[in-house]
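Priority: medium. Attachment 1 of 2:
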């Protein structure tokens, strides 16, 4: 799509082109290379692009369950459908969980999501998008909506998500609640291969749509590495609130492949 500009480079000395290229920010992170694992960026795949993402989230150290550990697995295939819109299909999510008294392996859900980009963080100053996800599992039904905002400043990307979720669980789906929250991330591109940053997660439950719970807050560093057709991003979160039924530490890793 840039061929209409190629003929102009013949009139520019080679040494000047090299100097200009050296002075430009070396940003290679795109819609298919996530800088964050808890925060969604506002960019989407171009039409026809396909990517696979493998999520692994380990949670441990709960005050109310000695020896608690849980590992969640998600497998997503993303498709660029039309300009500014992509969908994601999640293969069956499942988890391994154990503590000092018990252990289990179980299927959680399947899901589909869609992201509609509204503005571009590179050309419009502030990027924005709308995100929607539906999960359906064994005695589980979830509707989730997010507002995605993103600001790009040279090598730095700052992204914020506002989250609203409705959940129905249990026999007859009679255990219902709302979950409201926000995630915030900042990432700095050291070079085209390595990025470092931090993420924050804040959530509060609204049990039975009538009773507000405690605020859960976790924060921690992240790192991302990327190659031509492969990338990996990991975030370690530490709870800074005081909720006994939430993990004090969690580690999420996402591995992505482009096709």
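Attachment 2 of 2:
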């Amino acid at each position: 799509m840039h061929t209409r500009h190629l003929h102009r480079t013949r009139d520019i000395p080679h040494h000047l082109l090299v100097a200009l290229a050296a002075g430009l920010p070396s940003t290679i992170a795109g819609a298919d290379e996530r800088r964050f694992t808890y925060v969604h960026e506002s960019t989407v795949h171009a039409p026809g692009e396909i990517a696979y993402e493998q999520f692994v989230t380990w949670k441990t150290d709960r005050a109310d369950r000695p020896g608690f550990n849980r590992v969640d697995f998600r497998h997503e295939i993303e498709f660029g459908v039309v300009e500014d819109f992509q969908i994601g299909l999640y293969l069956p999510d499942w988890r391994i969980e154990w503590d000092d008294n018990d252990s289990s392996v179980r299927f959680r859900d399947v899901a589909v999501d869609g992201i509609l980009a509204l503005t571009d963080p590179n050309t419009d100053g502030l990027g924005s998008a709308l995100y929607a996800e539906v999960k359906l599992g064994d005695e589980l039904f979830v509707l989730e909506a997010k507002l995605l905002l993103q600001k790009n400043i040279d090598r730095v990307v700052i992204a914020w998500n506002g989250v609203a979720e409705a959940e129905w669980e249990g026999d007859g789906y009679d255990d219902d609640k709302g979950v409201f929250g926000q995630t915030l991330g900042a990432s700095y591109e050291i070079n085209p291969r390595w990025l470092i940053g931090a993420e924050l997660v804040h959530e509060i439950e609204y049990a039975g749509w009538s009773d507000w719970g405690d605020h859960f807050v976790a924060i921690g560093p992240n790192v991302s590495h990327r190659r031509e057709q492969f990338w990996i991003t990991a975030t370690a979160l530490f709870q800074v609130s005081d909720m006994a039924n939430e993990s004090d530490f969690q580690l999420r890793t996402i591995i992505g492949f482009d096709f």
